[in-house]
Amino acid sequence: DTGVSQNPRHKITKRGQNVTFRCDPISEHNRLYWYRQTLGQGPEFLTYFQNEAQLEKSRLLSDRFSAERPKGSFSTLEIQRTEQGDSAMYLCASSLTSTNEKLFFGSGTQLSVL
Amino acid sequence: AQRVTQPEKLLSVFKGAPVELKCNYSYSGSPELFWYVQYSRQRLQLLLRHISRESIKGFTADLNKGETSFHLKKPFAQEEDSAMYYCALTRAGGGKLIFGQGTELSVKP
After folding, report:
1. How many Cα neighbours within 13 Å face the side chain of B73?
2. A50: which residues sit within 8 A by CB, 6+ positions away?
3. Cα–chain-centroid distance for residue A22?
4. What is the mean pLDDT of chain A?
């Protein structure tokens, strides 16, 4: 499968714990996006990278959230001191800047905070 | 503020009936508009974008800048069209996509 890959598929954690998700984009894609989706809502933008540079981060995003894309390939999203309100599907997507803006999405990581 | 509004959470039609999924947006500037679709147990994927002026799976969408709308239409719905549909926008030149809340289309036999 050469699509966008996300791991893990599911994560259950206790409130207060830290979690980290990984996203592997399509190999030639230089843009990588993180979105969050809750039941009955559309994807909510969190942040995006062009190569290793983080170009934009949602102002709604708590300081507990951090994302990296150290070598311009895979990316990680970390949530520190998780809260029950963090429970959601976390989606990763990638694109080529030249095909503005066809995003290819991964299957997501479903986070449940108990 | 940039915003995409899909007023219908659920749209239910019979097979062969026309379909129109509404999308309104607010944006200061010239946005680019898209429709994304998510079929059951599949990933979110691009259906069509206004700059391509294309028809995909019989669906079309026209950007109406006066009414700030980008409604998705299909003259004869098929059962396989049942899915979640999301309208989205980005600024000209690219960047983050802003999504609407989504409309679930249910096509009954």
Report:
1. 11
2. A30, A31, A97
3. 8
4. 93
pLDDT given for residue B95 in this prediction: 80
* pLDDT value of position B54: 80
Radius of gyration of chain A (CA): 13
B94 to chain A, any CB pair closer than 8 A? The answer is yes
DSSP per residue over A20-37, as a string?
EEEEE--TT--EEEEEEE
Chain B residues close to A55, C-beta within 8 Å: 95
Cβ-based contacts of A91 with chain B (< 8 Å):
44
B86 CB within 8 Å of a chain A CB: yes
What tokens does B72 get? 């998705």
CA A77 centroid distance within chain? 6
Say which residue, A85 or B54, is predicted with more confidence: A85
pLDDT digits (tens, 9 = 90+) for B52-68: 878 889 999 988 989 99
